[in-house]
Automatic annotation (TrEMBL):
Superkingdom assignment: Bacteria
Region (Disordered) residue spans: 251-278
Membership in a protein family: Belongs to the peptidase C40 family.
Every NlpC/P60 domain range: 282-427
Coiled coil: none
Listed name of the protein: C40 family peptidase
Molecular function (Gene Ontology), one example: cysteine-type peptidase activity
Low complexity: compositionally biased ranges: 251-261
Domain SH3b, chain residue ranges per copy: 27-93, 104-167, 184-251
InterPro entries: Cell_Wall_Dynamics_Protein, NLP_P60_dom, Papain-like_cys_pep_sf, SH3-like_bac-type
Amino acid sequence: MKKSTALLATLVLSASLLLLAAASAATASQTVGQVQSSVSFRSLPSTSSTVYKYLKQGEQVVILEQVNAYWYKVQDVTGAIGYISADDKYIEIVASGSNGSSAANSATIAASVSFRTGPSTDNARIRYLSKGEKVTITGQPNSSWYAVTAADGTKGYVSSDPQYITVNGTITQPGGSTSGGSGAATGNATIVASVSFRTGPSTDNARIRYLSKGETVTITGQPNSYWYAVTAADGTKGYVSTDTQYIKVTGSIPSGNNTGNSSGGNASGGTGGSNSGSSDQAVIIERVIAAGMKYWGTPYEYGSDRNTTTTFDCSDFVRTAYREGANLTLPSDSRKQGDYVRNLGSVKTDWHQLKRGDLMFFMDSKGTSAAAYANVNKAAETITHVGIYLGDGQILHTYSTASGGVKTSVIAGSQWEYRFLFGGSVL
């Protein structure tokens, strides 16, 4: 008992020292936040990501970065790094450091000016910035607007007209380039019409904001033929449509695609062969997914005609995507497709280990809550649904008339996570 008590005391003391050290360090050069109400501590800045744990009221964290208007990247007292909501009902800044802001980027409001959610008068006004307020310029999407952060941490946009704002020095753009207070930020693409800027490559993902006509962005990758991964002038990262009616590429795009493999590497299990993750296979997978995306919105029909593409059920859709994209004809129903994957010998029962393009197999629905599946022996369940894993926690599939036909869905925290049996490659 004495040893246990001593160990417990040591652990408590260690945790306290860690917290004090974090708070002390943050006061000098970082920002400390205090949790105001129990909040999810997540693996990624998305409500569809894994919840590591819940932070309790009164806990303090070091804020490492504000990813966007909705999320902070933070480090807790144990040293773990994750993401929490930036909503002030959940967290309050109790010690503010420099957070990496450069004095060269400081500016002073010269006359009352609208502080907006985007670089356009069409965007909503957050509030008016008052004469004398200090702001930090984080980017310049075009010659008419600055992306700025106000003293309270709010991010938005103001006119770059010198009658409204006085720049104190040279503006450092994201990536290290300087503009000298005039001209647009450098990038490799320009927005040609207002377009949704989303947290992931799907219309199911949350909209960060609308990018406005004339904004300059940097394309950093292309997860598929329909979406670009881009960084806006203020440093915010997200995804936009590749449709040329919305974006014009003005420079070179980095070679190689962001395939969105959420497992963080090759999940082939070291078996080699068809799951080697070779560049040739990656090209085939992208063709398969592009073939599937081509049928976005195609109506669902149970037992659809395998010789047409006017309607699909789940297995018909998967079969068509692989036939057109990989010149591979799979069995015509989901159970036989499951047997096909099993026979290749590299199935995964944890969907996080799947690779982009792998097939996912599901049992029949027992409801939308995790509790409904708590006592299910999945090894004895029958396959009733199949879809194509896209990476980034999303599946491309079709499953009902009411759902709208072929679409993408988020897996984590949904019926698709609870119903999942196994998955794997067919190549």
